[in-house]
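Build the 3D complex.
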Amino acid sequence: MSLNELTAEMLPALEAELQRVVARLNQPHTQAYHEMLTYHMGWSGEGAGPEATGKRVRPLLVLLSCQASGGNWLHAIPAAAAVELIHNFSLVHDDIQDNSDLRRGRPTVWKRWGMPQAINAGDGLFVLAHLALADLEGKFPPETILKVFRLFDETCLDLTRGQFLDIAYEQRADLSLEAYWPMVAGKTAALLAACCEIGAVLGGADETVQASYKSFGNYLGLAFQVQDDYLGIWGDSALTGKSAESDLATGKKSFPVLAGLAKGGAFARRWAEGPIRPEEVPALADRLAAEGVKLLTQETADQMTDLALAALRTADPQGEAGDALFELTQKLLGRQA
Amino acid sequence: MSLNELTAEMLPALEAELQRVVARLNQPHTQAYHEMLTYHMGWSGEGAGPEATGKRVRPLLVLLSCQASGGNWLHAIPAAAAVELIHNFSLVHDDIQDNSDLRRGRPTVWKRWGMPQAINAGDGLFVLAHLALADLEGKFPPETILKVFRLFDETCLDLTRGQFLDIAYEQRADLSLEAYWPMVAGKTAALLAACCEIGAVLGGADETVQASYKSFGNYLGLAFQVQDDYLGIWGDSALTGKSAESDLATGKKSFPVLAGLAKGGAFARRWAEGPIRPEEVPALADRLAAEGVKLLTQETADQMTDLALAALRTADPQGEAGDALFELTQKLLGRQA
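Done.
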């Protein structure tokens, strides 16, 4: 069974669980609150549908890791729902913090319902994630569930650490590459690492194997982010016609930007002079490439990908779910395993 | 041992635990994040000290309920820290949502560090509350801790329900008294009910007794809020010299305001015409009293107080902690038990 076939089984079960958890708010007095969450999750309102839900990569990692490490993915569904809800909590708050108008092509929650309600809607997703996790009860021993709770909240704290750094960095001009990793570790890698680790815990893997799954998720997250940063400057849409969306124009402190600042060359001097205009973007992207940063970024993404694959091989995932984990890695990172 | 003597024992232990939990952020890269939380908690920055910490009523309810229902309050300290952290999470977000500049006489977190960091600081307190709860491990059976987790997160969901209603009500002119209870149940009563219930669960009380403690906390919260609403219009500071701080001037949808709107008299007609100017406040407060609302508000607070005391008697709290619970109720509600 391929990744696609497993996904076709898993996603409907996940979606049903997510809707069941969010439906706790579908009650007298709070229906408008419920609607904010179903809108954000991609189930209701204009533009609802598969394009609006996101790819649900994180819950798939939980389910595949559980199955591949000896468990039954059906029992891990509450934990898969929890990580997806946490991811969406962070998106709702992130959109307020970044003043973003659009998310997956639709108006953001704060844009539609105002900032105060959007803060509260994010808080609601955060709580629902924890209530989803509590639904593991009866399927696993209490000790296992408590371990997952602790792991989950340690990860949430990492998310807020990464978000703190991301916001703090906006104001700073003195950053270089060493500032990158703690931010990305929190914002991207921590949750992916937790997905794989939680899957392995629920799959009944021993602690060494749990650690390998965690390491796989961590490097998968780092590789994905560095590659995403690469595409944010040298990807097709960043270079052709959509220069205003380039990370150079938005001022994002991405890997190539921080690497370019560390070089202290022409790119760094231009960056220090203030915001980049869209018409400058193509030439500045070339400049950055000429300073060796394009190659460095690609090499770094490749290194992280190698580390992810090595950790996954060490974890030795079994069966079709195991194959699907390699396939998912390849799909996310665009590389042959 | 009186309430004061018990408090003098409990508060230092609580404060030490709170500081220990928050110190998870006192690490390289995140010290400024840590500082936001220690500032908000009243431990650092200008104006730090007892005036800035708040009264810690909620954790005291956990500890006293635990001790009075047969437990050892020292073991319940992590849960007491958790409810205080959740309370403070809600204050940090509330101050953003209400656009409040001051909290306990000091600039609010968003005022000092900006809205994006303040949203994140609130999120951090939310996570830390859960990590505090996880520290019950080893002191109680895993099943008990999972029960407390579930109860805690159900309560957090109630908090967001109340907050949703509070924000939604600001825009609405068609409200009457029936809109009041679901909002106050979520915003104030749910957390106080959970404090007492969690205390009883950790104290080893049976389920009937747990329910009585929960009921006590619920009515305590309702009584406290109605009384607070009373003071917001007819209290000394609302009437003398600080009319701008009267709930009439701020437009808060408090119990007396909603009761006045339900009367459909002169008060309701004036309210419908738009914001109340400070110089109108004393006469309008008199108008509301003449329409019977002052008496109704006092009677309602008294009824809720009676229900709280009846529930507490049913819970039959034992020993000095039991006496202290009656004393605390009296202190909070200004009434003889």
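The longest helix of chain A spans residues 142-170.
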